[in-house]
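ok so I'm stuck.
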Amino acid sequence: MSAWLASSWHQIRDLLLHDLESPSPQLRRTIAVMIASFGETLRTDAAICERLDATIEAVVAEALPWRSELIRFVTAVVRRWEPCSFSDRIEAAVGADLQYIRMNGTVVGGLVGGVLHLLAMSTQ
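replied:
not stuck anymore, here's the structure
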């Protein structure tokens, strides 16, 4: 049974890799359609949204006892990144939109900071 499972897995993996290397991969289109369908379902079905929210909240609540370990793990991973190569990869992946993201981040950050400042001043 384990030999059959291993053989089947290798065949499936090879088919998927071959498909992904093709000029028009079916797998990529199928995943895109699945994601779009899931998004549409979330947009139109409030009950599913509520169940998904409850599930995410339960997972987060369950993970809270391990948050210090999660923080240590993420910190260790981020420390291994080389800042220059990492920022180069982000800029290459995002491209020209990165400048708009930076500008939007600056504007939104400034507005949020201003609102928080005004709220802090009004409570004094």
